[in-house]
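A favour, since you know our structure tokens better than I do. Would you make up a two-line entry for one protein for me to read? Write everything out right here, beneath this request.
=====
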Amino acid sequence: MRSKLPGSCRVKKLYFVVLAVLLSLSVAVFGGCGSYIRFRVKYHLVYCCEPSVERPAADLCASVKDMGYAGYVIEYGGMYYIAAAIESTSGAASDLAGSLSERGLKSGVVTLERINFELETYHAEQNARQYEYTLETLDAIVTELRNCVHDLVVGDGEEVRPSMRAMAAELYGLAADNTFNCFTAKLAYISALSSECAYGALLPRDVRCLIVAVVDCIISVRLT
């Protein structure tokens, strides 16, 4: 039966059908874009002067370690830094940088910050809760490790060992929960490093190195 709708009505009806289809396509294509985890991290990194031809990175890292600090190379914002330590405040970081400079190791401070971790793929969106939990746990571990460094410096290392072993176990558990995703490789490395700290000589420089490694994972990870 032929439609009795006036021609203009048929055109309007067709227009709205096409519009609805286009809108649905837009949601399908663009709905996942721009998704992110609302999580902000901020760390104050004390780093040592850039390596040169006269003093290569390996030599500078060794000097930093000899002074009881991390000696870990970290990349941020397209720049590479030889990390000495991660401090909780900018003031503490500036004080440490000044102290190291006075001891002959020219140092500076850079703030490492990341806001809203983007979920770059559909797989990442499906694993958003797991990724958020992993980031929050790693950030909490950074705080606990800083406390351990403080206790190591001012007290008995053996009193710190139970806490270090507990964190090593937690990191191994975290690694087991993140097999075959964007955290896998770095969590495997961090877990091994934490085990060396917890069951080895337990020196402040090794714990500082572990802290920087954890921060490196948080700052550099791409959620895919």
